[in-house]
């Protein structure tokens, strides 16, 4: 009987330790969506929190999933030092912009192109916290437009407002002139 009690206690303790182990995970935080203009540079922000202090074995991997859902591509890797990809679409177009002491593992993508539309993932492991969330950033690269719909709407509303002010001012001036003309006629009639 005593062996069963010990075995039961060991199983309960094991389950509790496993729950604690899973609770001690890395949480990754990113922007949900970023919009950037074609040909510009964009910082993809990624920060993390960990129940353990930052270790020498901290690793960061950034990957890219194009909009056409073709295979993932490596973008960037960090383990003690930043490593840029030796080939691929991001070769010589990505730089480290993070600060490990501040739990920041951000990167900058240079010279954005429409083919860069897609989802970037940021994954951090900080031993012993090897499990955790993966941050996702959806990047939309747009063409530079000189006159957006919002500008058009603002100009239309502004023009309509100015036109209303001009019409109201004209009506007031016309009424005042008519009143003055009527007053002059009354004075002239009284003088006769």
From TrEMBL:
A Pfam family it matches: V-set
Membrane topology (UniProt): Single-pass type I membrane protein
The Ig-like domain, residue ranges: 24-140
UniProt xrefs under SUPFAM superfamilies: Immunoglobulin
Annotated compartments: Membrane
Transmembrane segments: 150-174
PROSITE patterns: IG_LIKE
InterPro entries: Ig-like_dom, Ig-like_dom_sf, Ig-like_fold, Ig_sub, Ig_V-set, Myelin_P0-rel
Main location: membrane
Signal peptide residue numbers: 1-25
Keyword terms: Disulfide bond, Glycoprotein, Immunoglobulin domain, Membrane, Signal, Transmembrane, Transmembrane helix
Coiled-coil regions listed in the entry: none
GO biological-process terms attached to the record: cell-cell adhesion
Annotated Gene Ontology cellular component terms: plasma membrane
Entry superkingdom: Eukaryota
Family per record: Belongs to the myelin P0 protein family.
Entry protein name: MPZL2 protein
